[in-house]
Amino acid sequence: MDKVAVLNSLQETGLVPVLRAASVEQAIALATAVAAGGVKVLEVTMTVPGALQVIRRLVAERPDILIGAGTVLDPETARACILEGAQFVVSPALNLHTIELCHRYSIAVLPGALTPTEVLTAWQAGADIVKVFPAGAMGGASYLASLKGPFPQIKMIPTGGVSLATAAAFLHAGAFALGVGSDLVDPQAMAAGNSDIVTENARKYLAIVHNFRAQQPTPIR
Fold first, then answer.
1. Could you give the domains of the chain?
2. Which of 84, 131, 148, 155 is catalytic?
3. Is 131 considered catalytic here?
């Protein structure tokens, strides 16, 4: 899948579940539970033990899921993830060399930023989407709306503070998509054998995205 198709898929899904797990097998099980709920996008964070192995296995075993790499802090890690098949790269912070590396491989890159200066710097450096993190700690949806005021052209994915209770507000504030962590990809539920909770939450998040879009006016052509 080329970069344009990846970005279109991210926008169409409207969700980027952030997968954190205690083991490779738990990560694979979480991915399966999320996909069963209809969400076919997943960000595997580098904090997962054996994260590269998780990416490799999911790319091979679940070609129906768009797999990205998360918590990528440097270009060397980005390259390792890309070589394992990751189709987008996400970071909690801004590293210009990582953006440059992803451009070299024509891979979608979503660096993290928080302040207006960081957001603009990331965009000018070639970020495909800017991850606003931690959005919840800065006021949530109202903070995203404040950023979108001067930067309407910049695609932003809020992460941190996104939940079933706040998802709609973030979409109304202008989110390109939603970065969702343990409120959806819940390793504790999986450890307790409650994969159905994860699957049902995936369905609930998709319903919020679909309901939001159904309320938007149809653009005049």
1. 3-214 (3.20.20.70)
2. 131
3. yes
